[in-house]
TrEMBL record:
PANTHER family: HISTIDINE TRIAD HIT PROTEIN. It comes from the Eukaryota. CDD domains: PKCI_related. One of its GO terms (molecular function) is adenylylsulfatase activity. A motif (Histidine triad motif) lies at residues 169-173. Pfam families: HIT. Residues 75-185 form the HIT domain. The active site is at H171. This is Histidine triad (HIT) protein.
Length: 185
């Protein structure tokens, strides 16, 4: 078996994130911790995963922004039409609230207007949208009460590609059920 150099180990780590396994499995190397073992016993997996996830979110957001103003149906339109199943938390004649399929907290509910009316993102709101914007916020309060998080929750609106908005149908995220930190990121 070829001898492993520090450079080879680091190159291997870049590909697999597993220097420790390589060092421990290599014959002729000391079983005692080395500086490489010590420094990489817990590889920075979280950082590597976050960079990848962030890239995916950014890519999805940019792709969605291309079709933002075409009027094409979004996944939310299909949920409103009951073509796609969802766990509905609250519904009235103008607003629908349902659980997020990729929750970022124990409680994560999306609140959307049933009629888009050109309101694809908050940055494009006009005076005619004033009433529905108020209804969305009040529905967020009702959702928080129904979900038992009225004592502490967060309402988030991502507006535009730079905010990683991935569905261009205005929506609020109602998030809670755990201690929220500030700043969020």
């Amino acid at each position: 078996m070829a001898a492993l150099t520090s450079f080879a180990l680091l190159r291997n780590f870049g590909r697999t994130g597993r220097i420790v396994a390589s060092v421990r499995a290599s014959p002729g190397l000391s079983p005692f911790p080395t500086s490489i073992n010590f420094l990489t016993a817990n590889p920075p997996r979280r950082y590597l995963c976050r960079a990848s996830a962030k890239h995916d979110e950014e890519a999805a957001s940019k792709a969605a922004a291309i079709n933002a103003d075409t009027g094409a149906p979004t996944i939310f339109d299909k949920i409103i039409a009951k073509e796609i199943p969802s766990a509905i938390v609250y519904e009235d004649d103008k607003v629908l609230a349902f659980k997020d399929i990729n929750p970022q907290a124990p409680v994560h509910v999306l609140v959307i207007p049933k009629f888009r009316d050109g309101l694809t993102e908050l940055g494009k709101a006009e005076p005619r949208h004033e009433e529905i914007l108020g209804q969305l916020l009040y529905a967020a309060r009702i959702v928080a009460e129904k979900e038992g998080i009225l004592d502490g929750f967060r309402v988030v609106i991502n507006s535009g590609a730079s905010a990683c908005q991935s569905v261009y149908h205005l929506h609020l995220h109602v998030i809670g059920g755990r201690q929220m930190n500030w700043p969020p990121g």
